[in-house]
Design a protein that fits this description.
alpha+beta; four-stranded antiparallel β-sheet; elongated
């Protein structure tokens, strides 16, 4: 992979804190002209350092303030079972994040919902019907202490 320099890292730091920062503002911070900033951002996108630009939404205002972490242990631990589960879970719009993890639990899902009855319906109608789900354990978040999407670079 092509290497990046300190200017690129500075651009990445600023973009991950505020993706709406303008090239003009970045140029002023970096003390360079706007054109190289545009070129560097395009290059960082092409190289894959910048995957996408997103808006972080307010869960409370959208009535999805309950965060649940669902721990799933599979009944069978073969390649096809895992791949099938991964394909199926990607289709569930309620699942915000899904991780294959090491340890006693196989998968960890993050789900934002409006209410406990809504979560129950999700479990009953969608998640429990997925092939190969063995045990399912849910942890509900009482308070978000820290939420930061930045990667320290």
């Amino acid at each position: 992979m092509e290497s990046i320099d300190e200017i690129d890292l500075t651009i990445l730091r600023h973009l991950q804190k505020n993706s709406k920062i303008t090239a003009k503002e970045l140029a002023q911070i970096l003390n360079i002209t706007i054109s190289p900033v545009y070129e560097r951002i395009k290059r960082l996108e092409q190289l894959g350092y910048i995957k996408e630009y997103v808006a972080i939404l307010d869960k409370v205002l959208l009535h999805k303030s309950i965060t649940a972490f669902c721990q799933i242990t599979m009944r069978f631990h073969d390649k096809n079972s895992f791949e099938n589960f991964e394909l199926e879970v990607k289709q569930l719009e309620e699942v915000q994040e899904c991780y294959l993890i090491a340890g006693q639990i196989d998968f960890l899902l993050k789900i934002n919902i409006h209410s406990l009855p809504e979560y129950y319906e999700f479990i009953k109608i969608k998640l429990a019907k997925l092939e190969n789900v063995g045990t399912l354990n849910t942890i509900f978040v009482l308070k978000e202490v820290k939420q930061d999407y930045s990667i320290v670079i």
